[in-house]
User: Which sequence fits this backbone?
DNA sequence: TTAAAGAATGAATAGGAGTTCAATTCTTTA
DNA sequence: TAAAGAATTGAACTCCTATTCATTCTTTAA
């Protein structure tokens, strides 16, 4: 034998893989998935298109990983917010406002993750993450019902509804509002969520 | 001149156009937009593919018209429900349950209209119709606030939120529930909507 | 009946983006 | 330094449908 992968090569391959992912992530963050053609990703990553295929079997696999990476961050952020100290209402408010704030910080990315038309297999990832959000909210709702803060309800449905509610308001009124109006819009959404879960007075 | 379109020809052309639209509508209703390739539409309509182009400049135009046709029916149905006699709460309940019932009656179509990945120009139609739903709900919310049935709120935001809420719950929990569970799920969604708009006791 | 104008046909074409692969360059070890 | 094994390259290829258009029917009016 005259060749075996050394740590150095391993490291460089890891770095190439990382570059490709980062390039794709950046393109998606700027122009959505449609802007991330393989040739564009390759150019941005500084490799040939063929090289991408040594790291990702298909474009869909690459996109799925980009989707997971981006979405997981959002889910984690919401999870942290939901896990803070305080009443369930406060934690729900924080979780929701975290979602809103982060979506506003990168609206194109938010659009890509929430609503951009994508390949069905990437859409499957989207559904996974919508469920991940829903699970977090569902747990919070259950807790709030036990503590008596929220009225009795089907937590699974309310959780899904909140996810849909947040997505739609991010794409609709909020994105087109002026910067000064944003805070009040965000406040409206939070108030709406609290009403929806039936916070008792 | 030796040829001029007569009423007979006019009528047949109208009928061909109608066949094409109907074929497309049916395919979309069964398998979504992805199942409605031009060749499939032509076959279903009993014409050659080239013929479609004498009636619709591009596939996108055809799809947009199919989308509008289908969506308008849904919007009209909700509008009727919202315009019945009764309290604003009752009318909201009816509007929401109308939406749910109709979505359940044709789930594939509901998916195509609500969430199937489509061309951006068809997506634009989708946004139009989401706004149409929202407008109906917004008017109802305004009325309910004036009458004192609903708490003060930003009706535009709540309306958008309800649209998102309905769409998400149609795709999530409801579609996968058993037939017997459907009614209770629908009831949960209605109750949720009433809480969200802040129905006063 | 016939010529002009339209309408319909469907095989051929176009175009765009993902994917492949023969040739090339790089790494490693003997 | 050489040879084997990998990795990289990017132009060529593939695939898939939407779209076109030369040809063939139909219809109309003289």
Assistant:
């Amino acid at each position: 034998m005259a060749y075996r992968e050394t740590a150095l090569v391993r490291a460089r391959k890891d770095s190439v893989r990382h570059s490709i992912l980062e390039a794709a992530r950046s393109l998606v963050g700027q122009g959505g998935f449609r802007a991330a053609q393989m040739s564009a990703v390759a150019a941005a990553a500084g490799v040939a298109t063929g090289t991408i295929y040594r790291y990702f079997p298909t474009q869909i696999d690459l996109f799925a990983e980009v989707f997971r990476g981006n979405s997981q961050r959002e889910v984690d952020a919401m999870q942290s917010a939901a896990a803070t100290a305080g009443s369930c209402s406060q934690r729900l408010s924080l979780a929701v406002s975290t979602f809103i704030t982060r979506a506003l910080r990168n609206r194109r990315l938010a659009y890509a993750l929430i609503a951009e038309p994508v390949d069905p297999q990437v859409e499957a990832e989207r559904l996974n993450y919508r469920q991940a959000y829903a699970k977090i909210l569902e747990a919070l709702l259950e807790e709030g019902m036990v503590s008596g803060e929220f009225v009795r309800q089907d937590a699974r449905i309310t959780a899904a509804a909140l996810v849909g509610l947040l997505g739609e308001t991010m794409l609709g009124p909020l994105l087109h509002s002026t910067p000064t109006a944003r805070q009040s819009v965000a406040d409206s959404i939070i108030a709406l969520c609290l009403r929806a879960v039936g916070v008792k007075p």
